[in-house]
UniProtKB/TrEMBL annotation, chain A:
The chain crosses the membrane at residues 26-45, 51-73, 85-106. Keywords: Cell membrane, Membrane, Transmembrane, Transmembrane helix. It is found in: Cell membrane. GO terms for cellular component: cytochrome o ubiquinol oxidase complex; plasma membrane. NCBIfam families: CoxD_Bacillus (TIGR02908). Belongs to the cytochrome c oxidase bacterial subunit 4 family. The lineage of its organism: Bacteria, Bacillati, Bacillota, Bacilli, Bacillales. Its main location: membrane. InterPro entries: Cyt_c_oxidase_su4_bacillaceae (IPR014257), Cyt_c_oxidase_su4_prok (IPR005171), Cytochrome_c_oxidase_bac_sub4 (IPR050968). The keyword Transmembrane applies. This is Cytochrome c oxidase subunit 4. It is a multi-pass membrane protein. It holds the Pfam family COX4_pro. One of its GO terms (biological process) is aerobic electron transport chain.
UniProtKB/TrEMBL annotation, chain B:
Residues 10-521 form the Cytochrome oxidase subunit I profile domain. The lineage of its organism: Bacteria, Bacillati, Bacillota, Bacilli, Bacillales. Belongs to the heme-copper respiratory oxidase family. It catalyses: 4 Fe(II)-[cytochrome c] + O2 + 8 H(+)(in) = 4 Fe(III)-[cytochrome c] + 2 H2O + 4 H(+)(out). The keyword Transport applies. It is a multi-pass membrane protein. Pathway: Energy metabolism; oxidative phosphorylation. Cytochrome c oxidase is the component of the respiratory chain that catalyzes the reduction of oxygen to water. Subunits 1-3 form the functional core of the enzyme complex. CO I is the catalytic subunit of the enzyme. Electrons originating in cytochrome c are transferred via the copper A center of subunit 2 and heme A of subunit 1 to the bimetallic center formed by heme A3 and copper B. This is Cytochrome c oxidase subunit 1. The chain crosses the membrane at residues 30-49, 69-91, 103-123, 153-179, 191-218, 238-262, 274-295, 307-332, 344-366, 378-400, 421-441, 461-482, 553-571, 577-595. NCBIfam families: CtaD_CoxA (TIGR02891). GO terms for cellular component: plasma membrane. Its EC number is 7.1.1.9.
Length: 107, 616
């Protein structure tokens, strides 16, 4: 990265890439703010019935987590196989825990 | 550095070096010494338990003290003996096996050790003020209602040391992913490195459940919450789930490294490559994966219902498949090999039948219907001592004999090694085999006394005699360790005809491990060079400057801060003055973090000239 600060052909390519990356980051950031606002709005305004609010918020949350992982934590980029395996392994262990507690303790 | 290393150092400098060290080999020494100390404490507690049970209605210790003994024995052996000794072995060997100069985060490595150490000291301070007495599983509501501060020490001690273990696990993961020598692909890694990797993953995913459980218990006991209080709408079963969601993977955190140790020892002393390497790796991964889906088999009698019990019973039995694959692969590694039998090999050979007995009783207790009979009897005690002593402790002792020359530069005495093995091995089976039958006859675990003429007298007597044999074996090993330090023979670089990278460098290795990183050409890299090359590793890089981290006292001070704060948390319920400890300790810990964050420490370089000056 350090030797990319000179002007050359390679650099214009890198610059374009960085620009695209920045655009994606800003878009996903704006979307996340949007989702958060929607979540607050549907709770505050009573436009959706209470029973429906919970799954909608959970859905928004899942999308936000995906943005977090893939854009902000760069899991969509190359050479992120190990982080992906570990994160999905952790998600798996967490889901098992939640499923176990919900099904066995409260059901 | 090289000049300083050759000079005779004073005791103060020696202690200071170990307090501040970030070198993985020295941290390994610390883990082994501290873990060994706690192992002796736990062993002493076991001996007291067995003396109490030598005869019916014995009154060697009181009932309350007996509860403290069993709690402290279990907690100490699992968290402060077995785990740290294994972490010590991983620290000592794993970076050498992958051809690295240190772990990825030397500072965090040191911090992990000191947190573990202060956690262990914290737990044992409770002996002076009233030890925890709710069993090593600390089931609620027994633990939430236990009077005094015993359980508080348990919570804080485990919380502090658990943070250290978590750091150690993450550190090993990053090290293995990023710091393998050129050519060391994943499927060329020695099995001990593989099992370190998988066990670290288990640490990463399992310890958070314990951390959460301990926090909930801490809030219930110290700050008036009611997570486990049924009267206030809580649910005491949640603790059992959280504890075993951590606790079952913990079993594999302990046994998988031992599997890795045997998988490295058998090929060395059978002079054959490991049979079914790929199957071994995938069996390890499969055990780890299944290990997260079986925790409720510890809770069959809680009343989860036949449906949940069946699922967990079948998942548990599935684990026998990859474990069986491993047992057969070890046998086939030995098959037709040119076998050398020495102390390390004796422990490994004894492991196979001992552990298989433990596995077999494991299938028995996994059958949920039959488990109603076995639950909370000595049958369960016998089962898990067969897997933990017959698997983990045998593994640790095999590893100590095998890697002692590499870690300390001395070879352990063979005669004493064999004496320790035979007495411990006979004592182990004397102690625990009979307990299967005591359990089947209905002797419940954790009871202070048993009555006369119920058919339990002889069995308990034999069991206690066995415990004395084990004690003798441990003392012989201890003497052997000290003897080797004082007058043991100096170890050559490769005393066993080794196959893996750690045997390619001097014993003990120089503080930078590899002068030039080695080029790895396949599985068992050193063996390949011995059979197809000139017997030496080919360097993968020209001789150049080596970047080394600076020593630091900050991990020690930071851990000391948490240690002091721990006492504050425990006693703030009684005395307001304890807030001084609480805030003072946290200030020390957070201040150390601040210093570490703000002060740049770039380490230093060993120059090429300095390396050239040192004779090979």
């Amino acid at each position: 990265m350090a030797n990319n600060s000179n002007t050359s052909n390679l650099d214009s390519f890198q610059k374009q890439k960085n620009k695209d990356e920045m655009k994606k980051q800003l878009i996903s950031f704006a979307l996340m703010i949007g989702f958060t606002l929607i979540a607050f709005a549907i709770v505050a305004s009573d436009v959706i019935s209470d029973m429906f609010v919970v799954p909608v918020i959970l859905l928004l949350a899942v999308i936000q987590v995906a943005f977090q992982f893939y854009y902000f934590m760069h899991m969509k980029d190359k050479d992120h196989e190990w982080p992906s395996i570990m994160i999905y392994g952790g998600v798996w262990a967490a889901l098992l825990t939640i499923a176990g507690l919900v099904l066995v303790v409260w059901w | 550095m090289s000049i300083a290393a050759t000079q005779k150092k004073g005791v103060g400098a020696f202690i200071w070096e170990y307090l501040t060290t970030v070198d993985h080999k020295k941290i390994a020494h610390l883990y082994l010494v501290a873990g060994g100390f706690f192992f002796l404490l736990g062993g002493l507690e076991a001996l007291i338990i067995r003396i109490q049970l030598i005869s019916p209605e014995n009154d060697f210790i009181t009932a309350g003290l007996y509860n403290e003994m069993i709690t402290m024995h279990g907690t100490t052996m699992i968290f402060f003996a077995a785990m740290p000794i294994l972490l010590g072995l991983m620290n000592a060997v794993m970076p050498l096996q992958i051809g690295a100069r240190d772990v990825a985060f030397p500072f965090i490595n040191s911090l992990g050790f000191w947190l573990f150490f202060f956690g262990g000291v914290m737990l044992n301070v409770s002996w002076f003020t009233g030890a925890p007495d709710a069993g090593w599983t600390a089931y609620a509501p027994l633990s939430t209602t236990s009077p005094g501060h015993g359980v508080d020490y348990y919570i804080l001690g485990l919380q502090i040391s658990g943070a250290g273990t978590l750091m150690g696990g993450i550190n090993f993961l990053v090290t293995i992913v990023n710091m393998r020598a050129p050519g060391m692909t994943y499927m060329r890694m020695p099995l001990f490195t593989w099992t370190t990797f998988i066990a670290s993953t288990l640490i990463l995913f399992a310890f958070p459940a314990l951390t959460v459980g301990l926090f909930l218990l801490m809030f219930d006991r110290m700050f008036g919450s009611a997570f486990f209080d049924v009267a206030l709408g809580g649910n005491s079963i949640i603790w059992q789930h959280l504890f075993w969601i951590f606790g079952h993977p913990e079993v594999y955190i302990l046994i998988l490294p031992a599997f890795g140790i045997f998988s490295d020892i058998f090929p060395t002393f059978a002079k054959k490559r490991l049979f079914g390497y790929t199957a071994m790796v995938f069996a390890t991964v499969l055990i780890a994966f299944l290990g997260f889906m079986v925790w409720a088999h510890h809770m069959f009698t809680v009343g989860m219902g036949p449906f949940a019990n069946s699922i967990f019973a079948i998942a548990t039995m599935a684990i026998a498949v990859p474990t069986g694959i491993k047992i057969f692969n070890w046998l086939l590694t030995l098959w037709g090999g040119s076998i050398t039998i020495n102390s390390a090999m004796l422990w490994s050979l004894a492991f196979i039948p001992s552990f298989t007995i433990g596995g077999m009783t494991g299938i028995m207790v996994a059958a949920s219907v039959a488990d109603y009979q076995y639950h909370d009897t000595y049958f369960v005690i016998a089962h898990f001592h067969y897997v933990i002593v017959g698997g983990v402790v045998f593994g640790i002792l095999a590893a100590l004999h095998y890697w002692w020359p590499k870690m300390f530069g001395r070879v352990l005495n063979e005669f004493m090694g064999k004496l320790a093995f035979w007495t411990f091995f006979i004592g182990f089976h004397l102690t625990f085999f009979i307990q299967h039958f005591l359990g089947l006859m209905g002797m419940p675990r954790r009871y202070w006394v048993f009555l006369e003429d119920q058919g339990l007298d002889t069995g308990n007597y034999i069991s206690t005699i066995g415990a004395f044999f084990m004690t003798f074996g441990v003392l012989v090993f201890l003497y052997n360790a000290i003897y080797s330090w004082v007058k043991g023979e100096k170890a050559p670089a490769d005393p066993w005809g080794g196959r893996t990278l750690e045997w390619a460098i001097p014993s003990p290795p120089p503080f930078y491990n590899f002068k030039q990183l080695p080029l790895v050409r396949g599985l068992d890299p050193l063996w390949i060079e011995k059979t197809e090359g000139n017997g030496k590793m080919t360097p993968a890089e020209p001789l150049g400057d080596i970047h080394m981290p600076n020593n630091s006292i900050i991990p020690f001070i930071m851990s000391l801060g948490f240690f002091i704060a721990g006492f504050g948390f425990i006693y703030q319920t009684d005395y307001n003055a304890a807030y001084i400890l609480l805030f003072g300790g946290m200030a020390i810990a957070l201040g150390s973090m601040l210093v570490r964050s703000l002060k740049d420490d770039h380490g230093y370089h060993i120059t090429k000239e300095e390396l050239e000056r040192e004779a090979d």
